[in-house]
Amino acid sequence: MGVDLNSRPQPLRILETVLYAPNLARIEDFYRRALGMEPFAAVPGRHIFYRFGDQMLLIFNPDATQFSATESSLPVPPHGAEGEGHICFGASGEDIALWRTKLESLGVTIEADFEWPGGGRSIYFRDPAGNCLEIAEPRIWGVA
Q: Cβ distance 125 to 109 under 8 Å?
């Protein structure tokens, strides 16, 4: 009997988002100072994980994850990326103004700050690895 492709389940949500950065010590310091984030788990030189409710932000050192981990008992395939990634954090419009002030006080350059044509504000800046970070109102995507 064949499989009905129309009845396949769909993912519920995005559970993990991944960025890559070769210098995890700099990343951890930046995310702590600039965004107030504390690691959920870390392996020095390999990864830092952050928890946001039921979602995870994983930051891997691509030099350590692009090859199979011979010492690991977990069958995770190698992965990595070159170049800058992007992630957007949600915040209220009022909080975005506070975020901008805080980031600028830390010497973080705000690359863009604008209102989307359909409504909602975004600010863009970079982490030490060059990843493009955004803080935006969820309404830019029509969600609360």
A: yes
